[in-house]
Specification:
The complex is a heterodimer of chains A (68) and B (142).
Chain A lengths: L2 E3 L1 H11 L2 E4 L3 H6 L1 E2 L3 E2 L5 H8 L6 E4 L5
Parallel strand pairs in A: 2-4, 2-5
Chain B lengths: L5 E4 L2 H7 L4 E2 L8 H4 L6 E2 L5 H10 L5 E4 L5 E5 L1 H4 L7 H4 L1 E2 L3 E2 L5 H10 L4 E5 L5 E6 H4 L1
Parallel strand pairs in B: 3-4, 7-8
Antiparallel strand pairs in B: 4-5, 5-6, 8-9
The chains are: A alpha/beta (68), B alpha/beta (142).
Chain lengths: 68, 142
């Protein structure tokens, strides 16, 4: 179960632990706007693609549009 | 996912952008209010003496001062009129409370439209929780 984090924690994880940012929205929305440095893995594909595209040794931060 | 360290940034990208944090994408404005804001605008707190603030603002060659609390939340603004005369008013009495603000993420084109429609010369930029980012000048956007 992911741990909820705030903006400050995201910035710390990025700066200090080389965290991987993953936007879980559809590709079109990702293309329009995403956090700088994020990659796009739509939620339905996350389990299937995570192993091949993400580094298990680094924190992963998932996000979408807002509180949903 | 089966990964050991997974976090959920629950506030999401709308919140991230509204704080002026870095974004990419086809709909992200090339230049934003956060980019254009002068972050060195003079500030003061309610407990200061107006005369001291007036002197400090003039020495810095500004003609406005933003009133903030200890969390940098904007409370009001001291304009030319409030700073010009020698009065005994308190900061709270002299300031214009609750000025209009925009978020750092708004594009400068949209901000300029808003400034023009309200016939203003500058606009305050704050975070969603009201903390001062800076001041944008109309003449620098036109």
């Amino acid at each position: 179960m992911p741990v909820a984090v705030d903006r400050d924690a995201v910035q710390r994880l990025l700066a200090e632990e080389a965290a991987q940012l993953v936007e879980v929205l559809p590709a079109k929305e990702f293309g329009e706007e995403h956090l700088a440095g994020a990659i796009n893995i739509p939620l339905k594909q996350l389990d299937e693609r995570a192993q091949g595209e993400l580094d298990r040794e680094r924190p992963v931060i998932v996000y979408c549009n807002d509180y949903q | 996912m089966g990964f050991p360290h997974v976090y959920d940034y629950v506030a999401g990208k709308k919140s991230w952008g509204s704080y002026g944090l870095p974004r990419e994408g086809t709909k992200v404005p090339e230049r934003t209010a956060g980019d254009a804001a002068h972050r060195d605008v003079p500030t003061c707190t309610l407990d200061e003496r107006l005369a001291d603030v007036r002197e400090r603002v003039r020495a810095a060659e500004w003609d406005t001062c933003i009133v903030i609390n200890d969390q940098r939340v904007v409370l009001g603004r001291l304009g030319r009129k409030a700073l010009a005369p020698d009065t005994d008013e308190s900061i709270a009495e002299a300031m214009s409370p609750g000025p209009s603000t925009v978020r750092p993420s708004i594009g400068t084109d949209a901000l300029l439209e808003r400034i023009r429609s309200r016939n203003l010369t500058s606009y305050l930029v704050t975070t969603p929780d009201g903390r001062l980012v800076g001041l944008v000048f109309r003449n620098e956007l036109e």
